Amino acid sequence: MKHMKRWSVLLLFLAAGIPLYAATWHVPGDFPAIQAAIDYAVAGDTIVVSPGTYRENLNIFQKHLDILAEGSAEDTVIASVSQAGSVICLRDTQSKQMVFDGFTITQGTGTPYNGKICGGGIFVRGSSLLIRNCRINDNTAMGSYGTSYSVGVGGGLAGYSSQINIENSEFTGNFASGGNIPETVTGHGGEALGGGLGLFSCQTVLTDTDLTANTVYAGVTCRTDMYDPPMTGVDAYGGAFYVNGGTFASQGGEWSDNLCHGGDTDDNFGGECPGAIGGRSYGGVGWIGDTIHVSIENATIALNTSIAGYGISWY
Hints:
This protein is mainly beta. It has helices at 2-15, 34-40, and strands at 24-27, 46-49, 52-55, 58-61, 66-69, 76-79, 88-91, 97-101, 104-106, 111-113, 116-118, 122-125, 128-132, 135-137, 140-142, 151-153, 157-160, 163-167, 170-172, 175-177, 192-193, 197-207, 210-212, 215-217, 221-223, 236-237, 241-251, 254-256, 259-261, 265-267, 281-282, 286-289, 293-297, 300-302, 305-306, 312-314.
C-alpha cells in the first residue's frame, strides 16, 4: 500500500508538469546558445553561462528559470542579433521569479506593444523578474512615424504589470525617443517615456542600482506650409525613469547625467516658425504618476538635465 501511495504522488506531480528535481545546464557545454538551453529547460532549472559574447534575442514565455553568468557582467555579454528587438523578452511568468545574474545586456531595439516600441534591453510583461549584478547599456526604444508604434518607452527596460527587483546593477547610455515626422509631412512626432526604465503598473524595487547618461527625446514636429498655424512639439517624460501606476522603491545608487528633451519643432519650407513652442520635458531624472507608493532613499542625484522642465516630476 505504501508503494502504491508513493507512485500515486509521483504520477500526480508528473501529470501537473511539476519537475521533481531541478537541473543545471551549461552554455556552451550542454547547449551552444542561451536560447537553446531556455527552450530545453523546464521551470525551476538553472542555466549557467560561460564568459563570452552571445548574439541572441532571448524569448521566455510562461517559464521561470535562473540564468546565471559564470563570470562577471564585464565578460559575459548578451547582444541583440543585428540590433533587432529586445535583448530579453519575458512574458507571463508571474507565478515564480525569473533571475538574470551577472550579464551585460546591450544593443537591443525594443518590442512593439500597445502602440509603443518598448524595452530596448529588456521587455517584461505579466512576470516576476530579479536582475542582479547586470549592466543594461546602450539600448534603444525608438518610435517610428507612419506605424502604429510612434512612442518609445524604456530604452533600457520596459515593464507592464510585473514585479521587478533590480540589485547592484547599472543602466547607462540607453535611449528612448518618439517617432520623427518626415520633412514632407505636417504633423506631430511621438512621445518618449523613460530613457532608462519605463514602468506601467509594476511593483518595482531598486537596490544599489545606478541610472546614468540615459536619454529620452520626443519626436520632431513639422509643418511644410508657411500658412499652417504654428505647432507645439510633443512632450518627453523621465530621462532615467518613467513610472505610471504600481509602486516604486529605491535604496542607494547614483542617478546622474540623464537628459529629458521635449520634441523640437521644424519648418521645412525655408522660413522661421514664429509662435511655435517646443515640447515640454518632465523630469531630467524621472516622471512619477498615479503611483500608490514611492520611496527613494540614499540616492545620489546630480547633473541631470531637463530642457524647459524639472528634475523629478510627480503627478
